[in-house]
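Write out the 3D structure for:
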Amino acid sequence: MAIRYELIKVCKQSGARLGKLYTPHGTIETPIFMPVGTQATVKAMTPEELTEVNSQIILSNTYHLYLRPGHKLIERAGGLHKFMNWDRPILTDSGGFQVFSLGPLREISEEGVEFRSHIDGSKHFIGPEKAVDIQNSLGADIMMVFDECVSYPAEYDYVRASLERTTRWAERCKEAHNNTENQALFGIIQGGIYEDLRKQSAEEIIGLDFPGYAIGGLSVGEPKQLMYEILDSTVPLMPEDKPRYLMGVGSTDDLIEGTIRGIDMFDCVLPTRIARNGTAMTSQGRVVIKNSVHTESFEPLDPECDCYTCRNYTRAYLRHLFKANEILGLRLFTYHNLYFLLGLMKNIRQAIKKDCLLDYRDEFFRKYGHKL
């Protein structure tokens, strides 16, 4: 097997899991957040800076790398790790979410999805076998099966038909995957907001015996409480001896609440995207640096943070960078947000170890401004 999950401890207070995920490119301490490097780069960050902020694993996007520069070119370059100069683990998504988000530019069939490129309008086709072939060429440590991520809201009958097709696609992905010693293929549980369909999908996907499982189709516009209810009913169905991955989630409250419900892995573009817009995640809540209140503030972005940005620059200077459209501002905010979020995950792991994650959540929410 390309990967192995070790359950280290379960928090007595919350039920959250502390674990280790062993991969060909290193060991990951879980629960963990994965920064998103869509096009073989985490925007505004060098690989060395990602190491500095202690990113244990990053995610790259199959759809985008297939279109540009092409998976075969990356394969000839020695694989994604060598191509982007990153020697730690990489997870690649299947491209399903991106393909299905194209709306009228794509057409779904039993074989797969025909779509037009968002870059030049050219026609392409990705099915389960193609998605696996692309990811095999990229050489990621963890690959995802090709699935359909339904929108919210979606009709019950459509969601049921979609998840059943996703199961058939998962079977085809597993059959097409031929590099099991170096790359792990994770299954994805779908089913929308319907508890019985989530149960059906979980039984079908887990029955295929993948080395890890993801929960897809959440954080797509549904109320947070509804997402938590789906997690409450779905996570207990998942094996205890394999990693559990909640796709597309990255806000501070969702990371904590997801961990409490037994999730081990998360990813999202949120921290890097809002950084480029001048919003920082801090221990006291979000800071919008463009607001005039920061014009003459010579305090650090976050007084409790010891990242490079907070050690060296004031809010006044950072605001100046954004108002002047200087690239350095985007870089410094991205660095800080990733450092902050990965630090949050480290604190969560420590709280699990000490059996006090619920206490940590309450204190964090009080300072951050989240409602309990």
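The chain has 15 helices and 16 strands.
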